[in-house]
Amino acid sequence: MSDTAASGGPDRPPIWSRPERGSRGPAPAHSRDAIVAAAITLADAEGLAAVSMRAVAAALGTGAGSLYRYLSSREDLLDLMTDRAVGELRPYPQVEDDWLETMVLLGRRQLALFGAHPWLLDVIHRPTGIGPQSLAWFDNCIRILEPVRCPVAAKFEAIAMMTGVVSLFARRESAAGAFSFAGVDLTAYPHLVAAFSQPPGPAPRADLVERTLRSLLTGLLLAGSTEAG
């Protein structure tokens, strides 16, 4: 088998279209779902780097070789983990007759998901990780945006941008307090010196995420609607 095939490359069908396990070998001791659940538990506790076939197998009380009856590679496992986590966005919220507020709620739901699974930020953009749950998410977003009169390309762009912005907020929250100018000599940076010499002003409003998402979505979609008209 080629290295590309072994890693689930373009000459190999996606993991979701393959059988749960190979047709050969002893009866399965575990399910694919159990393997993915164990991997997610490990990633939540120790980070994505801790997720290896050996570590997941150890968590299940078996040998790493046994997992290859269900998966071809760690890449397959990451794809399954991603899609399983995206499935936690269900049930999708809905504000009747208000596509903007519904999309903002979906963005909030995404932010909570990244908070529950910080490792997801590092795999969510993998093209191979678009499985059934991810497709259902996109399908739901397109359904919500049906009333908006703009090109469908603008809608997909808005959905992608929303996820990107939410990802940035999630990274900011996970890194809160990790960055500071304290103890740094700013003498050579006059604009920073001037900025820090001013009163700090009020703290950022708690609804910054929602305000940002509303501005982003209306800017992209309503501008697209005007262009379409």
From TrEMBL:
Keywords: DNA-binding, Transcription, Transcription regulation
Positions of the HTH tetR-type domain: 29-89
Segments for region (Disordered): 1-30
Species of provenance: Micromonospora trifolii
Official protein name in the record: TetR/AcrR family transcriptional regulator
DNA-binding region: 52-71
Tree of life domain: Bacteria
Record-linked InterPro entries: Homeodomain-like_sf, HTH-type_TetR-like_transc_reg, HTH_TetR, Repressor_TetR_C, Tet_transcr_reg_TetR-rel_C_sf
Residue spans crossing the bilayer: none
Coiled-coil residue windows: none
Organism lineage string: Bacteria, Bacillati, Actinomycetota, Actinomycetes, Micromonosporales
